[in-house]
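Lab notes, practical 5.
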Amino acid sequence: MKFGVALVSGYLLGSISFAYLIVYALTGEDVRKLGDGNPGAANVARTLGRKWGVLVWSGDVTKTLVALTFARRLGVEHPVFLTLVGIAAILGHCYSIFLKFRGGKGVACMGAVILFIMPRLFPLAIFLWFLIQKLNPRSITVIVQGLVIFLLSMLLLYPREQFFSLAGCVLLLVITALSINYQVLKEMRM
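Output from the prediction step:
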């Protein structure tokens, strides 16, 4: 029962669109009608400026951390179950009940899940994300190499008995990212 409450809360918190709220407060316009139409931090940064994109990113990270903290307070402790609550927040972000099931891509929310569950790896996750964006975000080879570096670092930074649970969390996040952004798969190349 508590896990179900945590999942629903995660989805509802994730559904709060800081991109929509901030853009509307600043301009009176719907962010989905600006730039590329994506209600996310990157579109806000491109259309209104970097500081507003960072504010949206911060809001998206915070709402996911709040969902995960609430789940932990309810008694959800295992990293895989916490990841599932984080995925509920990601799905809320990407398919917001408040925006007719449209939303952003979930990148900031995924980062928040990593920050909450694997805080020692968060700086590496940020670094790898920017590196992959710079090198070639559509290259399967580059993405797999980044994932291998991340998993090897996890093995070094966390006790072996936690590795498989945490690797399962990463696998769930990768599957979620690919499911949400499936159109990117068509653009990928070696």
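Observations recorded by the TA: The chain has a mean pLDDT of 92. The longest helix spans residues 50-74.
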